């Protein structure tokens, strides 16, 4: 039996990075880490490599400061560096870094190359344009995806045929549509906020075909369940990366439920499918540049209007009562976008709150804020 | 209740005769005059945008960043930043941004501001259009989008993608250049559409030639600073950045720079150093980071008591366009080469900035790193440099500061660190 | 019918006893000095000649609200301050509460319901803790600060926004012989500017006269109020016992619960 079946919905807490890599490597296969939800995993999967998302964690940093890392960068970046510098990724064959933002991108690449002992046999920095929806940016990114594929082929010493790419896209699209179905079932009370979130988390670390089997089973089981009443405050979570499910759990503990999100560990990861009616690399370039919801880190022409529309669409689709922004300290782009999103939500009289997180979500104060928000929603305020 | 402003900061003593603030005032006065008459459109930019195109089309580039540095030097940035923070701006955000945001959001009408601006004739005229090329940080283009939203004017964004770390500057792949050129063409169309002005490639060749000349002169000045005693220090070079970031492509900048070069040559001939008369040049340091405009005295003058002078500044070099000469017969491609492959996007450029061999050429004894807590880019660069200095056993000191906001800065702490650094150098 | 509200804060625990919609008694005890919630409620009850058996309902609020086992309901201090302030001053639309650990700004609608709020970030600047640190550095009592600051003729600029830096600034001001009252005035302004930031982040439209109320212990500091008024440009109303507004709000909610 596969480890992933035994632990169907593992969250980052459950397994060490070694354990996650090992079971796949034991089959004589390779593992590649990636950092950002805007990374075209399909190409890696098509090469028979297991892509695993390295999210960082809220463990205290123990090693990285010895290497003089930037204390004024977000905890996600610092934590990823710490994990690597501690040698926890030593079983990984490769690491692919998207040029995500000013902190998480080139610097991580440099550090891995210079400072991580026995660095990765395959280390790649994928330049992603920070503007999208233009012909020239698509054209540029197509070339870069082609180069990435070439480098990977060189590393594997075998070609990745077009048919494998097309198959990978099919499997990934299936995963996306299953996750959407899970979100819809959550919206109707068949699945809890925590379970739906763990479905996304597990999809970022398990082989997608196996993931799909698990998600299908989850959906079948959910459908025969009695739905939970939807009276609780229904929350849309907005932000980027969360290390684990703590926030989802806290919201449920307090009587609310997360019904939608635009997180990098949520809908930003899977919402938009890849088109199947054209050349695979071209389709991937389009999807990864133009996908909704966009991330302000990588879309610096700031599609804040698009982001707002996406949030409003999700609020309507999942009948959410309020938006909770959970943003990382030192994440400039998300914080700048927030200013405008807050203005727009206020104009529409949609309740929201913002919470800045660093190593931990800061439960004590956040609890009070969330409870006060729920009191407002429930008319107690 | 009377109050006392007490930031305990000050201006640095300069060596050169050029009065930069006079040129800055003149620039702002002319921009305001043009705005009033409607004779020339104003385009806001973030720094290291291809403003040679603006000059070629008779558009006035204005840089809120440059404006923020001036506000820092005039000690009025904290008041503007407070306005920004009261409008919900998180305190961790870039101080340059907060300074401008506060200015837009009512700060320019503060009584304390009015005096300072009127006295120095520095008033930022409202933009007609805005543009940002993302080649430095990701906050830049979003900043300009916010400005566009505030003033309800059109915005244009360009992107310089990361060059793959293994790619050498001399072998940049075609698709990078093509992507750059195609964006510059789009920018030109954008300008034509929104200003009604016609673009002329020949005129651009001229401004590119001027810009190249300016870079060349700065390169020469930097070469002359290898001499002992160093003829001109960091306090001067940093303020000259104004010409590089705001006037690349203008005749005036070339004329001023030429004058400065002549003066520097003269000083070299007379073996006259940047240090005050009677002070022997004992230490040569390299200055890393954006200078604290609110306290240039601590950043540069303070070290003079140890006979130290800054002979090299990464900050100025990053703006100088040293990456090879521009070719006026291929102006668009030249601009792509100048602006798209700079240190934040190009590993080789970053290595050039911190090239130890190059540094040895300047005879540098150690590095003074001014770390900026609100700048992701500088704080990341400095963290990486520190790792490298440790590796090569090169002396350095880090001062935590902010480029314009003295509220995030403790002058005693910083001077204390500088003292310790120089005492150790002397040992 | 009698009800109680108890506000278990970081610094002090407060209790209010209501009987038929009127405040019968209240009590304030330092949390660290035996200020256990049930004891404080009992002390307040005894002032009103009542005992715990007389209470129909108890609501707890404040940071320690989950550790008040005898309370039938827990409500956040945000809602409670809103309810309490609106009860005392019906024109209240904005509440500023500078507490020991954090400061809050709460926006109410005409019915006195909370519509929006903001809390400061984890940093101590802009909270009561900042005042405490500075009082300690100046070697004066926290309570003295307000009155002393009114004597100031020349507010000193405390330029650092960081508590640690600011403390060393204060120490160097003391060393250079600057009068304490001027330093305190500067400290008040530094906090006021932080709190004003929070305030304006929740104010989009014009603020009406008599609509801004300050609650919490720091509201007793007259110098602080003055600085805040200067920063936000409008008069601030302080209820007679600003510390007990949260507990009062809790008691009012307890009363509503009984009629539900």
From TrEMBL, chain A:
GO terms for molecular function: iron-sulfur cluster binding; metal ion binding. Signal peptide: none annotated. The keyword Membrane does not apply. Pfam families: HGD-D. InterPro entries: FldB/FldC_alpha/beta. It comes from the Archaea. Keywords: Iron, Iron-sulfur, Metal-binding. Belongs to the FldB/FldC dehydratase alpha/beta subunit family. PANTHER family: 2-HYDROXYGLUTARYL-COA DEHYDRATASE, D-COMPONENT-RELATED (PTHR30548), SUBUNIT OF OXYGEN-SENSITIVE 2-HYDROXYISOCAPROYL-COA DEHYDRATASE (PTHR30548:SF5). This is 2-hydroxyacyl-CoA dehydratase.
UniProtKB/TrEMBL annotation, chain B:
InterPro entries: FldB/FldC_alpha/beta. Keywords: Iron, Iron-sulfur, Metal-binding. The keyword Coiled coil does not apply. GO terms for molecular function: iron-sulfur cluster binding; metal ion binding. PANTHER family: 2-HYDROXYGLUTARYL-COA DEHYDRATASE, D-COMPONENT-RELATED, SUBUNIT OF OXYGEN-SENSITIVE 2-HYDROXYISOCAPROYL-COA DEHYDRATASE. Belongs to the FldB/FldC dehydratase alpha/beta subunit family. This is 2-hydroxyacyl-CoA dehydratase. It comes from Candidatus Methanolliviera hydrocarbonicum.
UniProtKB/TrEMBL annotation, chain C:
Residues 5-254 form the ATPase BadF/BadG/BcrA/BcrD type domain. Its cofactor is [4Fe-4S] cluster. One of its GO terms (molecular function) is metal ion binding. It comes from the Archaea. InterPro entries: ATPase_BadF, ATPase_NBD, CoA_E_activase_dom, Dehydratase_Activator_Redct. It holds the Pfam family BcrAD_BadFG. The keyword Metal-binding applies. Coiled coil: none annotated. Keywords: Iron, Iron-sulfur, Metal-binding. Homodimer. This is 2-hydroxyglutaryl-CoA dehydratase. It comes from Candidatus Methanolliviera hydrocarbonicum.
